Every structure is written in C-alpha cells, then in structure tokens.
Amino acid sequence: MIAALALFPFSGAESWIVNIGIFTLMYAALGSAWNLIGGYTGYVSLGSVAFFGLGAYGLALTFQHIGIGNGFLPFALVPIIGIAVAIVSVPIGWIAFRTRGLPFIIVTISLVIILQYMALNLTDITGGAPGLQVPQAPFPPGAYEEYFYWAMLGVFAVTLLACAYVRRSRLGLMMFAVREDEDKARGLGVATSVPKYAAFAGCAAFSAMAGAVWAYYLSTVYPQFAFDGEFLAMGIILVAYLGGIGTLWGPFVGAAILTPAQQYFAYSLGGSQLYLIAYAAVFIVVMLFLPRGVVTTIADRALRRSRRRKQVVEELATAESEALRDAPAPAVAR
Amino acid sequence: MSVDGPLLEIDALRKRFGGIVAVDGCSFSVERGSITGLIGPNGSGKTTVLNMLSGYLASDSGSIRFDGKRVARPDPTTMYRGGMSRTFQRARVLPEIDVLDNLLVAAPKRGLAVWGMSKANRATVDYAMTLLDEFKLTRLAEAKAGELSYGQQKLLEFATVLMGKPRLVLLDEPTAGVNHVMVDLMTERIREFHAKGLTFLIVEHNMEFVMSLCDPIVVLDHGKQLFAGAPDDVQQNQLVLDAYLGD
Questions:
Q1: What's the pLDDT tens digit per position in B136-150?
Q2: Domain of A73?
Q3: Complex prediction ipTM
C-alpha cells in the first residue's frame, strides 16, 4: 500500500493533484498520530495541533538561527524535531493527565490557544503575526511537489508503523486497557502512566514531524495556520472519526475522503465560507450511514459474514453437547 | 516473608462519607489458606472495606497488614503486584478487547518487558489458555469481552485476576446475577484454587453459597464486626439473626 502511494507521483499526475496528495498524507499522518492517544488510549486530545505548530516553528527557528542550507538537509532535521517536541510534551502531559474525559479535552484545546497567543505575542522569537519565513527549497519546479509528497509519505509511513507496533504489542494492550477502564487496569497491575505518556509523546512527535515538513513546503509559518485551533484541529479528529477510531488504516481512509472533498469544495464554492458548510455536510452524511467510521463498519460486516458461516458448522458440532450442558435446569429453590 | 500469623489483618479501619460512617472501626483477619466469608445486611460496609483493602479508596484511619507487613497507602497496582487481587460486584472486564487479551493484560510485567514486540511470551499465553479452559471460555477466546453473557464476564473477571498468581483473592459477590450452572463452575474453581493454596475473602449475599463454601464467616453490621465464626455458629447467633431480620 505504502509502495503504491510512493509511486503515485509517477502516474503523470499534475502538480495540483500531487498537492492534494501531500495534504491527504498530512491529515493521514496527523490522524494516525492522534489515534495513538485518542483512538488507542481513549484520551480525546485536541492538542495535536499544538505539537504540529511546535514542529513547524521548530523548523523555521532552526533556519533562522543555524544555517542548515535549503536542500534535502532540512528533511534530515524532521525526526530530530519530532524527538525534541516529544520531550517537550512530557511535562505538558504531566499537567493534562491530571484530568480525564471532558476536562482533558478542554486542557488540550487550551494548550493550542495558549501557544497561538504565545506565537502572536513573543515577536522577538516568533516574528508575531506575520510569522517566520523559511527559505524556499531549490527543487526544480516540475518536481517541487513530488519531493514534499515523499517526505510527507515518509512521516505517514513512520506513524503507521508505530501504530502497527502498538496494535500487536504489550504497550498497545496497556493502552487499550486504559481506554476500556483505567481504574480496572490499575487493579490488574498495569502501570497506567507508561501507556499514557507513550501515547501522548508519540502523538506529539509524529504531529511535529508533519508540521515541520508542512512548514518547509509552504516556506512560511504564521500563528493562525500553525496553531489552527479550529479548522486543522477539527480536521484531524474528523479524519479519524470518518475512517474509524482505533483502526490502523482508518485515518488514511478518512483523509482520502475528506481532504480532496475539502479542496474540491474550496475551489468550486470560491472564497465564500460556503465550502465549510459542504465540508460539514460530508461529515454528517458519513455519521448518519457509517456512524462508527468507514473501516470499522466494513470490518464488522465482513466479520459478521465469516462468523455466520462458522456458526453454522459450529452449531452442528456442538448442538449435542450444548443440549446436554444447558437443557436440564434443575429447579432450585432459593 | 513471615509464615506465621494471618495473611491479612485489618485493624480499626474507618471511613466516613460526609455524615455517614460507612466503616466504623472494623477489625478482622483472614487466615492463610482459608476461604473467609464476609457477610452483612445491605449498607453494612462490606464493599467499602473491600475498596479500602484493594487501594481504590483511602481509609480515614486504621491499619491494613498484608503478609505481616503494614501497607501504609494501598494502591490498586501495588496491591495486585504484591499478591492481592479483587473482582468487582458488577463484573468489570475490558469490553472492546478480546477475552484472551483481557487475561494477557493482567500478566505482571514491568520495566523493559513492557516495550517488547509481542503482547506476552509463550508461557503467559499458555497459562492464559489453561485458565480459559478451566473456566470453559476457550471457545470465546477471540470474542470481545463485551459480547459475553454477564455470567461469563464474571467468570472471565475471576480468571483474569488469577493471571497475577495472587496469594489472596477478594471476590465481591461472585454469584450475583449469575445462573446456577455458572455458580457451580465458580464454586468448583474456588475450591480447586483453594486446594492449591490460594486464600479467599468473599463478600456474598447468597447464603447457601457462603455457608457451604466459607469458613470462617465474618459478619459486619453498621461498619464493624458483629460476629465471626464457623457457618453453624453464625446461623445460630442471635445477634446475627437480629441484624438481618431487624429487631
């Protein structure tokens, strides 16, 4: 699947299509990163955008203070920014994890707002409202989009790999236990802070990596877009919900539906805010017909079909023993 | 590790919620290798005692000694790892993950082992499968725990807490809402693990179940011990009868 995605730019697609591809992969990466904390661990965080913005500003600030050239080298910086932001996220998590449920959502959205205000007002560091410029990458015009496409694909692939690891590992099992019933999990000897911090920091790292690539691609960072508490914050969660929370490919499927739809509406409905209404309509339609997300609904149907087949065989085999075990119910007076 | 003395000793445990004293200087002990019953009318503080023992609720005063050592501030995770595990009155399983995973998550692991590539090692999976077999849940190993019947969830919860190889298991109303076939299965398993040396403290309203299984039986009323003794003595004690029937 990843290989097929990697070959996509060779299909002769025009650069505006590759551009949509970049944003699709960005949402897929952000949605998958969100899945770690929101989908697997059950802590609905609206703070992904904060880490995305930190990653974007991290890259821009590195350009400002350390000359790193503007070729491929900045891409090498992306994982380092991811790790740095993950470290920064730990003390933030320490505060956020004093809450659960709805208060946790509010704490994490507050984080985005605080960082947006800081970016606006710490003008010496962040450049204030106009933001920071990042030197444009010297790629040939025809291939400019493609390099960023692959870079974003790399971020998505790494995020997906982390999710795949989580889904089959002990760490993931602990995350699921926290999501299902955190107090019960504590009573089963699960050190619940390990999966919680791992999910929070993982989400921060991958979101920051997506932010760094995004900043280099647009060659500018400014507060409204880097710490977009509305459109981007909603978008990340929408793709996860649309695709199916807690599924491996759900965020990608959600992004593949939502991002092109959003771009299409933005083009065809022009500069008015109407496209936002159309965007919301897509969400409502999917929620009506596939309330648990695309991947979850399809997987459930497939499972039910295979089970029905299995059941027929099993019923024949166990009919006798079941009859023996369940039928004679002695009347016991209690 | 001290071998003498009771496995669990609680002394003058107190807990008040606002104006209500739920547990009022409760003291009793659980001998090693016993199946101790904890009974009492509704509101006598049985579940509150269990919550304090398992670290879900902080006591106002009093002491808890487990295996001869005083537990200053019980916490669910450390109590479980220390060898005391519990089930809940209303079965609590992890509904959206499968039955086998419910057991695997309860296998004690710490430190670097948490970061491994697999959910559990071979031996742990084998032990989990053995338990599932004993609780007649093997067929459902891959089903989501939330899809099980209530009785099966109770059995699963019991099986789950055995993953930590505990020395003391606290069962909170194991038979409530469970059909008789499963009650029999539950009783069988309790006797079997008891024979292997496991100690039980069982809170229960089903008198037939308690009288046939538990010895001694501790009777609570108004948050303190009213009586403790063998099943026959409990049944004939006037104080106990008064507490249950009202005087």
A1: 999 999 999 999 999
A2: 2-228
A3: 0.91
